[in-house]
Design goal:
heterodimer; A: two-stranded antiparallel ribbon; globular; B: 59 residues; mainly alpha; rod-shaped
C-alpha cells in the first residue's frame, strides 16, 4: 500500500525539496511546446491560458482536491468486499486545514501534488489549441483539479483501492506509478482526447473530402526549448514521486535520473529515425513529441528498471508517438495540434504497462518491489490501465460534455478566423511582425 | 452508439474491478479481468466509430 514515509531526515528532505522545485519546469516546458505547435495568431493566448490553467488547478486543488486525494494512512471513505476494506475517496480536511507546512513529508507531498495537478491540467490545452475559450479552459480545469485528478490520484497515490491491490489481493505491491505516467499523464491525456472529441477539429484542418491538411507549428525554437525545460522538470517529478510514493531510497535518485535521460534519448532517436526514413528528413515537431513521450513513459518505472530497459521503454514510446500522431489525425479524425493524446495518454499507458511487462519477464528482478516469483504485479498494472479507459475516460468526457452544454467551450467562428490573441485578448503575441500599409506608403 | 460505447467501457471496468476485489482464485481473477478488458476494447471501438469523420466546409 502506498503511504507517505513518516521519518524525515535532513538529507532526504533536501533531495526532496530540490526535486519538487524542479517540477514546475515541466509545466513551463509543456506550455512552450504547446505554444510552439500552435498558430502564431494564438501564441499569447496559449501561454496566458497555461498560466490561468495552472492557477485554477492549484487553487481548486488546495480547496478540495487534496482533501479528496488524501495520502496513505489518512482517513478515507472505504467499502468492504470479500472481507477486506477498500478505500475509494480521501476524507482529509478542505483547504489543507490542520497541515503543518513545515517541510514534513506530508507538506512536501501536498506541494508536489499542486505542481502535478497543474501539469496534468495543462495537457488538454495541447489538443485544444487555437479553438478553446479561455473561460471554458478555466472552468474545465476546475472540474479536472477538483474531481477527476484527485479521485484517480487517491486510488494510486493516496492509499486507494489500486494501491491496495498488493496488500488485499496479492498483486505485487499494488499499482506502481512512481512519477505519474498514469496519474498525471494518462489522466491528462484522456481528458485531452475527450475535449478534442467535444470541440472538433480546427477550421481548415480537414478538406471537404475529409482529408487532413498540415497546419505546422509556428515556432520550432519554442518547441525544442520546451523539450529541454521539460527534461529538467521530469527529473524532479520522477525523483520526487519515487521518493514520496514508492519509498525509494535517496541513493536511487541517480538511477532515476539516468533512466529518465535514457528513456527520453531513446524516444527521440526512435522518432528521428522513423520520421527520417518515412519522410526523407527528421520531423521536428514529431521528434519533439517523441522526446516528451519518452519522458512520460519513463515516469512509472523510473526507479525500478535498469538503464537498458529504460532505453527500450523510451524507444517504444518514441515509435508509438510517431505512428499514433498520424493515426489519430488520419484515421480517427481527431485534430490534436500539440500531440497531447499520443504523447500523454498513449505514452502514459505504455509506461504503466511497461512496469507490468518487466515485472512479468523478470519476476525476481532487483528493484522491482513486490515482484516476487508468482506475483501478479502485471495484473495490477493492467487493472490500472483498465480503470483509466473504463472509468476516467467516460468520467472526464461526461463532465466536459455537460460543461459544454452549459458553457460552450469552442470559440466562435470569427475568433478562429482572427486568431485567439486578437479575439480574446485584443492584441497579438508578435505585434512587430504586423505589416502596416502606411509604413510602405511613407517609404515611397 | 457513442452512449453505448461509453456504457460498455464502464461495464468492462466494473467487471475488472469486481474480479480483482471479489474473486479469490488467481486464475478466475485473471480470466475475468481480461474479459473485462476485452469488453472495454469493444466499448472503445464503438466510441471511436461513433465520432463522425470531420469534413471541412467548401469555400
Amino acid at each position: 500500500m502506498t503511504s507517505v514515509p513518516a521519518p524525515i531526515f535532513t538529507a532526504e528532505t533536501a533531495v526532496l525539496v530540490v526535486s519538487i522545485l524542479l517540477a514546475p519546469l515541466a509545466i513551463a516546458g509543456i506550455a512552450l511546446i504547446n505554444t510552439g505547435l500552435g498558430r502564431s495568431r494564438s501564441a499569447a493566448h496559449s501561454l496566458l491560458a497555461s498560466l490561468c490553467i495552472f492557477a485554477v488547478a492549484a487553487g481548486v486543488y488546495v480547496v478540495c482536491g487534496f482533501a479528496w486525494q488524501g495520502y496513505g494512512g489518512a482517513p478515507a471513505y472505504a467499502f468492504s468486499a470479500a472481507g477486506r476494506d477498500w478505500n475509494w475517496l480521501g476524507r482529509s480536511p478542505f483547504f489543507l486545514r490542520g497541515m503543518e507546512l513545515d517541510g514534513s513529508a506530508l507538506s512536501l507531498c501536498a506541494c508536489l501534488q499542486i505542481f502535478s495537478v497543474g501539469l496534468a491540467a495543462l495537457i488538454p490545452l495541447g489538443a485544444c489549441l487555437d479553438r478553446w475559450k479561455l473561460s471554458a479552459a478555466c472552468a474545465s480545469t476546475a472540474l479536472f483539479a477538483g474531481w477527476t485528478y484527485p479521485l484517480f490520484a487517491h486510488w494510486v497515490w493516496g492509499g486507494g483501492w489500486l494501491a491496495q491491490l498488493g496488500m488485499n489481493a496479492g498483486m505485487g505491491r499494488g499499482v506502481i506509478d512512481a512519477g505519474g505516467s498514469g496519474t498525471i499523464q494518462a489522466v491528462g491525456g484522456l481528458t485531452a482526447l475527450s475535449l478534442a472529441w467535444i470541440l472538433g477539429p480546427r477550421r481548415g484542418k480537414y478538406s471537404p473530402e475529409g482529408m487532413p491538411t498540415a497546419i505546422p507549428g509556428h515556432n520550432a525554437v519554442l518547441i525544442l526549448l520546451g523539450c529541454f525545460l521539460a527534461f529538467a522538470g521530469w527529473l524532479g517529478l520522477n525523483s520526487a514521486g519515487a521518493l514520496l510514493f514508492t519509498q525509494t531510497s535517496p541513493g536511487r535518485i541517480v538511477l532515476v535520473a539516468i533512466n529518465t535521460a535514457l528513456a527520453a534519448g531513446g524516444a527521440i532517436l526512435a522518432a528521428v529515425f522513423i520520421t527520417g526514413v518515412r519522410f526523407g528528413r527528421p520531423d521536428v515537431s514529431i521528434s519533439a513529441n517523441g522526446w516528451v513521450g519518452g519522458l512520460v513513459a519513463s515516469s512509472a518505472s523510473c526507479a525500478f528498471v535498469s538503464p537498458v530497459e529504460a532505453l527500450f521503454i523510451g524507444a517504444v514510446a518514441g515509435a508509438l508517438v510517431t505512428y499514433s500522431v498520424e493515426w489519430f489525425e488520419l484515421h480517427l479524425g481527431v485534430d490534436d495540434p500539440g500531440g497531447a493524446i499520443s504523447v500523454h495518454a498513449l505514452g502514459g499507458i505504455w509506461g504503466l504497462l511497461a512496469v507490468g511487462i518487466l515485472a512479468f519477464l523478470h519476476p525476481a528482478a532487483e528493484g522491482l518491489p513486490g515482484a516476487a516469483p508468482g506475483s501478479t504485479q502485471w495484473l495490477a498494472q493492467i487493472v490500472t490501465v483498465a480503470t483509466l479507459l473504463g472509468f476516467v475516460l467516460p468520467l472526464t468526457y461526461g463532465l466536459n460534455a455537460a460543461l459544454d452544454r452549459i458553457w460552450p467551450q469552442r470559440v466562435a467562428i470569427e475568433g478562429e478566423r482572427q486568431g485567439l490573441d486578437l479575439y480574446e485578448l485584443g492584441a497579438g503575441a508578435y505585434p512587430e511582425f504586423v505589416t502596416h500599409s502606411e509604413e510602405f506608403t511613407q517609404l515611397r | 452508439m457513442k452512449l453505448a460505447g461509453f456504457l460498455l467501457l464502464l461495464a468492462g471496468w466494473i467487471i475488472v474491478a469486481a474480479a480483482v476485489i471479489l474473486l479469490l482464485p488467481a486464475n478466475a481473477r485473471i480470466a475475468f479481468a481480461l474479459a473485462g478488458v476485452a469488453v472495454e476494447i469493444l466499448g472503445l471501438t464503438l466510441v471511436i466509430r461513433a465520432n463522425p469523420r470531420p469534413a471541412g466546409e467548401r469555400e
